[in-house]
Amino acid sequence: MATEIKVPVLPESVSDATIATWHKKAGDAVSRDENIVDLETDKVVLEVPSTVDGVIKEIKFEEGATVNSQQVIAIIEEGAAAAAPPAAESGNQDKEAPAAGAEEVQSKSQAKQADDKAPSSTKPQSVSGGKTGDLPPGARFTAESKGIDPSQVEGTGRRGAVTKEDLLNYAAGKTPGVSGGARPEERVPMTRIRKRIAERLMQSKESIAMLTSFNEVNLGKVMALRKELGEQFQKEHGIKLGFMSFFAKAVANALQRYPVINASVDGDDIIYHGYADISIAVSTDKGLVTPVLRNVERMGFAEIEQGIADYAKKARDGKLGLDDLQGGTFTITNGGTFGSLMSTPIVNPPQSAILGMHAIKERAIVENGQVVAAPMMYIAISYDHRIIDGKDAVLFLVDIKNQLENPHRMLLGL
């Protein structure tokens, strides 16, 4: 019985998908739930598994083709067996081939001796399809010893002659007249995810009156708390206590006190969200994605850490679904993981603000009249100035700073 494999139902925000990679070809056996093709959308790569055991009878679209929701992309013959590979025909041919006769061997030997005795100028010389007879002796030896076709080499000698140096440079991958070695170039098309990221960034730049404010946070108490309770936390919850849970919880608390930071613009209306669905930026080999932690204002630290860990694993394995990326109200991005000291993050529409975390650096600060070294981090908030005033943005950032510098108050909801 033939079974149709279709494109999964795509959400309204995703119009179509591209065939990224076929993992099977026509005639291959497949098992139920085995991934047979990857589909790339504007946001994620979707795996399409086989729904039955059988053999792929037909593949309807090649890699790179655009397909729509519920479109048939392959046919599987259920229960069929894969065709056996053709039997090897050369197994005993070498053994059965008659040995060369004595006369033939002697003839070949005499021909070789005559060829070796002939002057080099009369011997037909070719390397990889190109003649070397008209090369100077040094260049000819270089071409023959390195297996270079002289016709493929640009000559820099007199009247364009190929020199020994040209051949050596060619073998080393160097371009004549260019110092520093080869200058390779490669042109590849953007992936759909990369193109979508570019579109969103340009949309943000063109449609939002964006402004960025900065502050700095002393993370000494957070680090001390993690050192004191980290081992017990991990034993109790089976997950490490990281920095992101402190930031996510501080953001969720501050969003409740400054709801305009959590709002979004829809035409001439402002939509206020009574929940904190926080998008956490995650870097993948295909680009930056922002899976959403829902209702962070209700979550404990262990739930936040587990949610972040689950999304990170999904992102690494290419398992993020479209629902994982929909509907965030605020974004946190951490350039500090790559060593960034300071940046101006770009707002992710239709959201109105984004928090940027950065690298933690020991710096000299004044504390109680004394100069001390402290683990400091610059934090930044970029926001849509159309609906968020500078006062609210700055107070929001100061609120986060105060929570992180007094984590015991944050844990008590103060």
Overall description:
Helix 7 (244-257) crosses helix 8. The longest helix has 18 residues, at 220-237. The protein is of the alpha+beta class and 414 residues long. The strands form 6 sheets. Strands 11, 14, 17, 18, 19, 20 and 21 form a 7-stranded mixed beta sheet that branches. It has a 4-stranded antiparallel beta sheet with strand order 1-8-6-3, with no helix packed on it. It has a 4-stranded antiparallel beta sheet with strand order 5-4-2-7, with no helix packed on it. The chain folds into 3 domains: 2-78, Beta Barrel (OB fold (Dihydrolipoamide Acetyltransferase, E2P)); 127-176, Irregular (Dihydrolipoamide Transferase); 206-411, Chloramphenicol acetyltransferase-like domain (Chloramphenicol Acetyltransferase). It contains 10 helices and 21 strands.
Describe the structure concisely.
With 414 residues, the protein is of the alpha+beta class.
Q: By helix and strand content, what is the structural category?
A: alpha+beta
The quaternary organization reads as single chain
Distance between the terminal alpha carbons, to the nearest Å?
Answer: 64 Å
Cα-based radius of gyration, to the nearest Å: 33 Å
The fraction of residues assigned to DSSP E strands is 15-25%
The CATH top-level class label of the largest domain: Alpha Beta
- Extract low-pLDDT stretches: 88-129
Annotated CATH architecture of the largest domain: 2-Layer Sandwich
- Average per-residue pLDDT, rounded, comes to 83
Structurally, the number of domains stands at 3
User: How would you describe the shape?
Assistant: extended
Q: Give me the number of helical elements.
A: 10
CATH homologous superfamily label of the largest domain:
Chloramphenicol acetyltransferase-like domain
